[in-house]
Amino acid sequence: MTTIINGEDLLLGRMASIVAKRALNGETIAIVNAEKAIISGSRARVLTLYGKKRSRGSREGGPFFPRRPDHIVRRTIRGMLPYKRAPGMEAFKRVKVYVGVPLDLAGKEMEVLEDAHVNRLNSPKTVTVGAVSTFLGARY
User: Fold this and answer.
1) Using an 8 Å Cβ cutoff, are 133 and 68 in contact?
2) Which residues are CB-neighbours of 18 under 8 A, at least 6 positions away?
3) To the nearest 10°, the Cα dihedral for 13, 14, 20, 22?
4) Is the bond leading into 69 cis (omega within 30 degrees of zero)?
5) Chain segment 31-65, per-residue pLDDT in tens
6) I need a labelling partner for 18 at 20 to 30 A (CA). Which of 25, 72, 83, 135 fits?
7) pTM higher than 0.90, yes or no?
């Protein structure tokens, strides 16, 4: 049984840590609406940070940082897993991330993580993952 999580209005880091823990415990998770997840902080600061991450390294040798919103969310979750060891690799394979809602998951019950909701923030300064992705040059 796959747990479907709606990423709309969820804080990226909090959502990623919850999903990583649950995946390590053997749960299969699908995250939909990845482009609507939220990163806290001023727009200028967040875009500068992700721009630096993207331009780091060399074209041939990496490290490579994704542009697409679903890949950015997946990479964030990967950072919270021991992905170089067997349990982390298995957990990472159990996590699927989608832009929008795919047809096979449409109409099914989706879970909203209250612990990761944007209402937790005191500051109104936020940026969506979709906006960061567009800034980095993605066409999704």
Assistant:
1) yes
2) 113, 115, 116
3) -170
4) no
5) 999 999 999 999 999 999 999 999 998 889 889 99
6) 135
7) yes
Top pLDDT among 115 and 59 is at 115
Closest CA to 34 of 10, 70, 9: 70
Contact 5, 29 (CB under 8 A): yes
Tokens encoding 66: 């994704």
Residue 111 dihedral angles phi and psi, to the nearest 5°: -95, 140
Torsion of CA 115, 118, 123, 129, to 10 degrees: 120
Q: Does CATH number 3.30.559.10 belong to domain 2-136? A: no
Q: Where are the domains of the chain?
A: 2-136
List the Cα angle 98/84/102 in 5-degree steps. Answer: 10
Can you read off the two tokens belonging to residue 31? 């995250």
